Description:
The protein is an alpha+beta fold. It folds into two domains: 83 residues, Winged helix-like DNA-binding domain superfamily/Winged helix DNA-binding domain (Arc Repressor Mutant, subunit A), CATH 1.10.10; 170 residues, Beta-Lactamase, CATH 3.30.450.40. The protein is built from nine helices and eight strands. The strands form two sheets. The protein has a six-stranded antiparallel beta sheet with strand order 5-4-3-8-7-6, with helices on both faces. Strands 1-2 form a two-stranded antiparallel ribbon. Helix 5 packs antiparallel against helix 9 and helix 6 packs across helix 8. Keywords: DNA-binding, Transcription, Transcription regulation.
Amino acid sequence: MPAATPKPRGRRPKTSEVTPDTAIDDRYRAPALDKGLDILELLATQPHGLTRAEIVKEMDRSASEIYRMLERLVARQYVMRTPSGDRYALSLKLFALAHMHPPLSRLINQALPIMDDFTRKAEQSCHMGVYDRGNVLISAQINSPSGWSFAVQRGARVGLLDTASGHLLLAFADEGSFKRMLAEHTPVDGEVPTTLEALQATLASIRERGYLERDSAQTQGVVDISFPILGPDNTALATLTCPYIRRIDRHVGPEMAQVREYLRAAARALSLTQGMNTA
Length: 279
């Protein structure tokens, strides 16, 4: 079998050229900022750094403007020169900044007002799940303001293999993470057993639809509606789940289809990608 032909190394797209859907309105463009961010994103993919000439080639910009930007990034300690002095690489400053505010706390702080808005419109509760040591941790939860709802407590650990949150996290994991998650999994109390074949079929269906909607495997009368919160690589950072219950008295609240759309919008607002396959 002939060897695959390597892809040619074209110039790195500028921020404003990425896609029509993500093009920045010209009124709010900041070319110098875009240039600096492009350099940081480029260097993030290069474990051994790049020379100035290589950066100029990849960025398709003039040597003088790249030189000025590099010098500012070095002065602010976002970029460092390698010991040989002829290459530039990312420093640990971005890493340190990220850890000044833990990522999960930041996600929760961003999610809570959006979740609160969902519960008010949907008249249902909502919780956010993240992967944690082989199962799912409920990291945030908001009750319905109507007083009638079903809720999963914040801090609860629920099963990876039999819950809506767990299935979403597995369905939108990369191959390496998927294998690690399965290897780390330990059954929780009451977990419904499944086979790998059945699990794979469920995950394939979720990926095709972009979300999950089904009767709860834990509680009768509850329908789980769950969407992924996606990162820039289309893997799930977390999940938003509504344990939907239908009122049968005279109160008229949002129908399940409308609740689904409210939840879809909430998950989309928190995702770091516009590529959510949630049609």
